[in-house]
């Protein structure tokens, strides 16, 4: 019985870890430890088990400027399998529907669908963005907040060349893997909303850990905006 209780408790903790990685994106063991109220060693035990199960992976954290002593911290993130275990807005029937649309209406029909799908969200997001005169960072932060409200777990990070809008969850990742028109229409909408050229660097649908959109040539504050 004790083993069953321990197994259940471990499962709940790992579910909590997965939710944190989904909502906040790549995180260190120390950050997860603080959020969970557990020791770092205990958190690492859960992370090791999740990595063995294939639901998370890790990479060395990027360091800007002079690096201190010791090994760089590792960032843990959900894998495709980990994302698939989270909430998803679409399933196999959505893929089948778009395949049928492509077969009967051609690529133009799929493109039209992608643009129509994003149009409603774009209109809602536009209402939540600050008025003209706001800085690119302020507009990007407002967009990230609106995306998070729709389940994309988004934030904005400053990089030396500008800003990066990061979406740590994609409710349509399985559909977008086959129909990249969804990602392309979303990127075009971001460009219109932010009033500047943007570039999609990575997508969860194509196997990356985070959907990353670069907003170049902006005056970005140091640190992270969310």
Report on the architecture of this protein:
With 226 residues, the chain is an alpha+beta fold. The chain has two domains: 2-84, Winged helix-like DNA-binding domain superfamily/Winged helix DNA-binding domain (Arc Repressor Mutant, subunit A); 92-225, Muramoyl-pentapeptide Carboxypeptidase, domain 2 (2-Layer Sandwich). Helix content is 53%, strand content 15%. The chain contains nine helices and seven strands; from the N terminus they run αααββααααββααβββ. The chain has helices spanning 2-24, 29-36, 40-53, 80-84, 92-105, 107-128, 136-149, 173-178, 181-194, and strands spanning 56-60, 74-78, 154-159, 162-167, 199-202, 211-216, 224-225. The protein has a five-stranded antiparallel β-sheet with strand order 5-6-4-3-7, covered by helices on one side. A two-stranded antiparallel sheet has the order 1-2. Strand 3 (154-159) and strand 4 form a beta hairpin. The longest helix has 23 residues, at 2-24. It starts with a helix and ends with a strand. Mean pLDDT is 83; it is low at 219-226.
N-to-C terminal Cα separation, in Å? 44 Å
Radius of gyration: 19 Å
Q: Please mark out the parts with pLDDT under 50 across 5 or more consecutive residues, or reply none.
A: 219-226
Total beta strands:
7
**Number of structurally distinct domains:** 2
- Tell me what the CATH architecture of the largest domain is: 2-Layer Sandwich
| Tally of individual helices | 9
Let me know the average pLDDT: 83
| Largest sheet data | 5 strands, antiparallel
CATH class of the largest domain, named Alpha Beta
CATH topology name of the largest domain, in short, is Muramoyl-pentapeptide Carboxypeptidase, domain 2
Q: In percent, how much strand structure appears in the residues? A: 15-25%
Strand order of the largest sheet: 5-6-4-3-7
Helix content: 40-55%
In terms of structural class, how would the helical and strand content be classed?
Answer: alpha+beta
Order of helices and strands: HHHEEHHHHEEHHEEE
């Amino acid at each position: 019985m004790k083993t069953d209780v321990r197994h259940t408790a471990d499962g709940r903790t790992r579910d909590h870890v997965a939710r944190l990685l989904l909502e906040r994106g790549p995180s260190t063991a120390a950050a997860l430890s603080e959020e969970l109220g557990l020791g770092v060693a205990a958190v690492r035990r859960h992370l090791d088990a999740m990595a063995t199960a294939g639901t998370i992976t890790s990479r060395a954290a990027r360091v800007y400027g002079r690096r201190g002593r010791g090994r760089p911290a590792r960032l843990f993130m959900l894998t495709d399998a980990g994302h698939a275990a989270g909430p998803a807005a679409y399933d196999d029937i959505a893929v089948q529907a778009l395949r049928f649309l492509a077969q009967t209406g051609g690529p133009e029909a799929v493109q039209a669908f992608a643009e129509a799908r994003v149009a409603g969200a774009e209109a809602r997001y536009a209402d939540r963005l600050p008025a003209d005169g706001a800085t690119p960072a302020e507009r990007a932060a407002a967009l990230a907040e609106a995306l998070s409200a729709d389940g994309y777990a988004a934030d904005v990070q400053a990089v030396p060349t500008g800003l990066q809008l990061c979406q740590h969850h994609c409710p349509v990742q399985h559909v977008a893997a086959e129909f990249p028109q969804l990602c392309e229409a979303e990127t075009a909408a971001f460009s219109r909303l932010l009033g500047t050229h943007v570039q999609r660097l990575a997508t969860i649908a194509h196997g990356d850990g985070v959907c990353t959109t670069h907003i170049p040539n902006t005056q970005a504050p140091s640190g992270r905006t969310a």
